[in-house]
Design a protein that fits this description.
heterodimer; A: alpha+beta; Ubiquitin-like (UB roll); Alpha-Beta Plaits; 2 domains; five-stranded mixed β-sheet; B: alpha/beta; Glutaredoxin; six-stranded mixed β-sheet; four-stranded mixed β-sheet; 24 helices; 43% helix; globular; binds flavin mononucleotide; binds iron/sulfur cluster; binds FE2/S2 (inorganic) cluster
């Protein structure tokens, strides 16, 4: 066995991981899906959503940030943890304003897909009705902050991949918002529709204009297979 | 605005064009300009070679930075729970009346702004406020017009009778408040190898006083052994937990002991630089602290070759915060020190591995470092002989609320709540909040329990609730505190705390059912288990601990119905009804 290999156990299954991987990456490679929202495989982890929380040796930790080490015992797919994940997804639904049936991201939206996968029926939590602003100032890219889950993907993509630092956050707590590198709006920034930042939004918040609704219902990403199936497919489970 | 751009350049130069000093740059500009507008933010970004959005990200995070012009003088009225218990709301009304504006507003002449502030560290002399940086205490509604008049007459606030801060040091103990000659602990340290200093610390079994109770010797050892180009020692003087003010008393009474401890730690860690992160609310302590540091440099207790020990170089810089409770959390504190928003980091890596500037860093509480100095002076065994087996030494308690003798007590660990209540003159207490909002609400049946890491841990905050208090209303105010102070990085805390405040309000308004309580408990558990850092992980404690200790208080407020909708339809329609003069037909 090479020096870089470490053995960890996820839900009773022993898997081999590579030192330097996070738990989430190791699980992905082994074909075990850990639900996640803010993480994107091409970007450094953000640790915002906490949907990827697992129990590491009995203690909750975010698997997208936690490095593997020899002998870790991880609980992932348990009723208890999935119920907590579902409640986080519900929180996002009542924080924002998600009119899924008419949203152009519907069917391709990771938030919506997680709601389905985790068995969310209807939000049981009180709606918060926080006030957030639209930004239609850019000719090709549109921001509807009502659908922003503050996952920070666009922020990281613009910084790490596009090298533009065109996005950031503003304020704190429940008043936290997505902010752009301009005084009046996205139109003043260097952002273009080809940027990584414009491609990674998990919801319908940051979208490229004039391409919505192109895929007919039934053929959208999550119409027939649940989110995570692409990872579980990699290894046929016994 | 051209004038401001010149000022920005000058201030940015003053801090060596260092992005890492953005906190100081923003503070300096805010002090000169009264606010940080988009123009200023843009100028700062240009001068530092940063993006506007990055500067805005940081500036918009801190309560002390305003992006809109405010009054020349800002009056911050503390509205923490112990302050409200002593009439802070009446005082706020009196200020509103005296100024003809509401809290959150500025007088039309642009002279004065009044706003609320979370705990400013004066709960033992509540209600208190900060006028600019100057604290005023023991306020009554009658003081409001007098203070306003003094401001209008251009008087120096520091000369007012209200601008008196009492020490209220009720019980000095042998560790923190015993006298010590400058340099004693440092000399005791440099006579040994750093490893031996850590071994002595290990003997003392000293655990961190900031809340988590991590063994200090172990933290220093990890930090000393971690790989890095430099090591840093940070003293956490953010003291933001409502009802805590013991670090203020240390910083006022015995800063030398603290600096002694920091220097000892610097020696043990192999650090050249120590940083004291002082909460913005304590700015008024800064001149004195700077003087003490200057004196110590003069005496050869800081700087190069300290106490003549060849190659032992160490110095201390004080960094002021800008109004954010979360910056007391060690990794958020480090982010703030680096000039960023105070968002905690995910662990691992821990600060002892990758902390300030990504180098091994030990973050220690003010009181912890004072204890460390004393351990070097008196020996680890002397220290370990006090307290209990798992909690050695003494603890400073900041006592406030419904008691006869609020103030600071230095007591051996292991004292029962009952004994403590006797000492502070609060035998009739209905409940005691041990550890502030993030701690536990303790019921009389548990008053036999002891203050210690193994039983009832506390960073120092003890808030007493007398027999007449509406306990659940106090819990609601605690939750509001977390709503205000959540950094917003992660979902369970950002959204969950706001949901909890709505759910609790519904119950306290008498519109809750048993199902609502169950639902609230589920959310509370999600906030506790899924949040990213200690703030979120403890933010639901006011609810969870009272559900456990005082279930009857909830029971008494519940409706017998199975379901009550989250919003009150009649109330929502009231305005419409009044305008149209019609009543809707409601099923009832
Ligand atoms: C929300 C939050 C606020 C905190 N505030 C403080 C504080 O004001 N002072 C402090 O010393 N520790 C505070 N802590 C604990 C620190 O993270 C850290 O554990 C401590 O400074 C370590 O020092 P110690 O080992 O000497 O206790 C806070 C933790 C959290 C989660
Ligand atoms: S705009 Fe989209 S990608 Fe950016 S933070 Fe919001 S939800 Fe995430
Ligand atoms: S738990 Fe709260 S304070 Fe901590 S990272 Fe999450 S949002 Fe920020
Ligand atoms: S995916 Fe790990 S915190 Fe969001």
């Amino acid at each position: 066995m090479s020096q870089d290999t470490v053995n960890i156990i996820i839900d009773g299954v022993e898997i081999q991981a590579t030192a330097g991987q996070t738990i989430l990456e190791a699980a992905d490679a082994a074909g075990m899906y850990i639900p996640r929202l803010c993480h994107h495989p091409d970007l450094p982890p953000g640790g915002h959503c906490r949907v990827c929380t697992v129990k590491v040796n009995g203690r909750p930790a975010s698997s997208c940030t936690f490095p593997v080490s020899e002998g870790l015992v991880i609980e992932n797919d348990t009723d208890e943890i999935n119920a907590q994940r579902r409640r986080i997804i519900e929180m996002l639904f009542v924080e924002g304003n998600h009119y899924c049936p008419s949203c152009e991201a519907g069917g391709n939206c990771e938030l919506q897909a997680l709601g389905y996968r985790l068995g969310m029926l209807a939000p049981t939590l009180p709606y918060l009705r926080v006030k957030r602003e639209l930004d239609a100032t850019h000719k090709d890219v549109y921001i509807d902050r009502d659908r922003c889950v503050l996952c920070g993907r666009c922020v990281r993509a613009s910084s790490v991949v596009d090298k533009k630092d065109a996005f950031g956050f503003e304020n704190r707590g429940i008043k936290k918002r997505l902010s752009v590198d301009a005084v009046h709006g996205l139109g003043e920034t260097a952002v273009s529709a080809a940027d990584k930042a414009a491609q990674v939004c998990p919801t319908g918040c940051l979208t490229v204009k004039r391409v919505g609704y192109a895929t007919p219902v039934g053929r959208r990403k999550y119409d027939k297979t649940p989110i995570g199936a692409e990872i579980e497919k990699k290894t046929a489970k016994v | 605005m051209a004038g401001d751009a010149a000022l920005v350049t000058q201030v940015v130069e003053q801090f060596g064009r260092d992005r890492g000093r953005l906190m100081d740059i923003a503070r300096a500009l805010h002090a000169k300009l009264g606010c940080l507008t988009e123009d200023t933010i843009g100028d700062v970004a240009d001068a530092l070679g940063m993006r506007r959005v990055q500067v805005r990200d940081m500036v918009s995070f801190y309560a002390f930075f305003s992006r809109r012009p405010k009054g020349k003088t800002v009056i911050r009225l503390c509205d923490a729970v112990p302050e409200r218990m002593k009439g802070a709301e009446e005082v706020a009304r009196a200020f509103e009346e005296a100024l003809g504006i509401k809290v959150g507003e500025t007088t039309p002449d642009g002279a004065i702004t009044i706003e609320h502030a979370p705990c400013i560290g004066l709960s033992d002399q509540a209600p208190g406020a900060l006028i600019g940086a100057t604290p005023v205490t023991n306020l009554t509604p009658a003081d409001a017009p007098k203070i306003v008049q003094a401001l209008q007459d251009g008087k120096d606030i520091a000369t007012l009778p209200q601008a008196e801060v009492d020490l209220n040091l009720r019980k000095p103990g042998p560790v923190i408040f015993a006298p010590m000659e400058r340099g004693t602990a440092i000399r005791a340290a440099v006579n040994r190898k750093p490893e031996e200093v850590i071994a002595e610390m290990n003997k003392s079994r000293l655990r961190g006083r900031g809340g988590a109770g991590f063994p200090t010797a172990m933290k220093w050892d990890f930090c000393r052994k971690a790989k890095g180009n430099a090591r840093y020692l940070i003293c956490n003087a953010d003291e933001g937990e409502p009802g805590t003010f013991k670090d203020r008393v240390i910083l006022t009474e015995c800063p030398d002991l603290l600096f002694e401890g920091m220097t000892v730690a610097g020696y043990a860690l192999g650090a050249k630089e120590g940083l004291l992160y002082l909460r913005g609310e304590y700015e008024y302590l800064l001149p004195h602290l700077d003087q003490v540091l200057a004196k110590r440099r003069h005496l050869g207790l800081l700087g190069k070759n300290i106490v003549g020990c060849e190659g032992f170089d160490f110095d201390i810089r004080i960094q002021l915060g800008a109004g954010a409770y979360i910056c007391g959390e060690e990794s958020a504190l480090i982010e703030s020190l680096e000039g960023k928003r105070g968002a905690p980091r995910d662990r691992p890596p821990f600060p002892v591995q990758k902390g300030y500037k990504n180098q091994p860093t030990s973050v220690n509480n003010v009181e912890t470092l004072c204890c460390a100095a004393r351990v070097l002076e008196m020996g680890g065994d002397w220290f370990a002989a006090m307290g209990t087996r798992d909690s050695t030494g003494t603890k400073l308690l900041s006592v406030s609320g419904d008691c006869k003798h609020p103030g600071v007590y230095e007591l051996e660990y292991g004292i029962t709540v009952e004994k403590l209540l006797e000492m502070v003159g609060a035998e009739d207490a209905q409940a005691v909040q041990v550890g502030g909002p993030s701690g536990q609400c303790v019921a009389p049946k548990d008053f036999g329990r002891s203050i210690s890491f193994e039983d009832l841990p506390t960073g120092g905050s003890i808030i007493v609730f007398g027999p007449k208090r509406d306990l659940l209303e106090c819990m609601r105010q605690f939750i509001e505190f977390f709503v205000e102070e959540s950094c917003g990085w992660c979902v369970p805390c950002r959204v969950g705390t706001t949901i909890l405040s709505k759910q609790l309000a519904k119950i306290l308004d008498g519109r809750g059912t048993r199902a609502d309580v169950q639902e609230m408990e589920k959310v509370a558990n999600t906030v506790k288990t899924m949040s990213r850092c200690g703030l979120g992980q403890t933010a639901a404690n006011p609810i969870l601990s009272t559900l456990r200790s005082f279930p009857g208080l909830y029971e008494a407020r519940l409706k017998k119905d199975d379901f009550v909708p989250p919003f009150d339809l009649k109330a929502a329609l009231a305005e419409g009804c009044a305008i149209t003069g019609k009543q809707p037909v409601l099923e009832d």
